[in-house]
Amino acid sequence: MKTKVNIKKLTMIARVFVIIMFLLLIAPRLGSVSAESIAGNTFPLPIALLVFLVIYAVKPVVMLLPVNVLYLAAGVLFSPVVAVVATYIGLALMLSVGYLNGRELGEAKVSDILAKHQKAASFLDSRRNITSMCFLVRLFPMPKDLFSMFFGAVGMPFYKYLAVSLAGMSPVMLSSVIAAYIATAR
């Protein structure tokens, strides 16, 4: 029960943090936002990368932002090589945080959470080959953060989980990052 309270508190704190950061850093500038002004902004690369990776690390707790939006943002903000490397590092962070949350919550609690999602619930019954299941849920539009918790809760070996998850997410990630870069190439 204490873990549930801690996770709820952590989730609430993360959401409040994201809202405050939005209000302080982004909202004052919204009046003058256009595609040209976004493309013209030049932030130092280390700062942009740090902010990008922090968003990935907080994403599994907040669960507000679809990962595809982050793929597209990387393609817009960075060169293709930097975007792909930063996105892989971000994905590793995101997947690790979700996995560790699942380990902390335990299998019963995570299964209850997943059972509330129709797409996810259908996969719960097919645990025969957890490695294939891990790869497949990464390929298709499924609640990725929830499945990260599931794989942590059922005790899938971490390095296997991370490698299979990254492999499953790579086709969509690579095509999204490259498409966003091409669409905004100057």
- Binned, the helix content reads over 70%
H/E topology pattern: HHHHHHHHHH
Beta content comes to under 5%
Distance between the termini: 53 Å
- Main sheet? none
Number of strands: 0
Mean residue pLDDT: 77
What does this structure look like?
By secondary structure, the protein is mostly helical. It has helices at 2-26, 35-40, 45-62, 67-77, 80-105, 107-115, 118-124, 130-139, 144-153, 158-184. It is built from ten helices and no strands. Mean pLDDT is 77; it is low at 33-38. The chain is 80% helix and 0% strand. It starts with a helix and ends with a helix. The longest helix has 27 residues, at 158-184. Helix 6 (107-115) packs antiparallel against helix 9 (144-153). The chain has one domain (43-184).
